[in-house]
Amino acid sequence: MTRSLAISQRQVQSLIRAAEAEKAIVEVKVGNAIYRLIPKSRADESKDALDEDSSPAAFKTFEEYQAWRDSRAGKD
Question: Do 4 and 21 form a contact (C-beta atoms < 8 A)?
């Protein structure tokens, strides 16, 4: 037997359509997990922000951090 989902497929499809129409990123919390729905229209611009590791441990030197920060200037 399969367990019923906390959100139906129809609800997910509605959220995806709404995200695409508004060109917005939608986050849905199901239990302890958060799911981010990114429409195709925003996927390319969001990829950099989502894939970059900006934690302090990601930079070996302060200069690396400054270069990362300066490369992001104007993106926010």
Answer: no
Domain ranges of the chain: 9-72
Q: 72, 27, 23: which is closest to 51 by C-alpha?
A: 72
pTM over 0.85? The answer is no
- Sequence-ordered alpha helix ranges (H) in 1-76: 9-22, 40-51, 62-72
Show Cβ contacts of residue 7 under 8 Å, excluding neighbours closer than 6 positions: 28, 30
Sequence letter at residue 11: Q
Which amino acid makes up residue 43?
Answer: A
Number of H helices, E strands in the chain: 3, 2
* Cβ atoms within 10 Å, residue 19: 20
- Residue identified by tokens 């969001």 is 46
- Share the mean pLDDT of the chain: 78
Kindly tell me if the per-residue pLDDT of 18 is higher than 80. yes
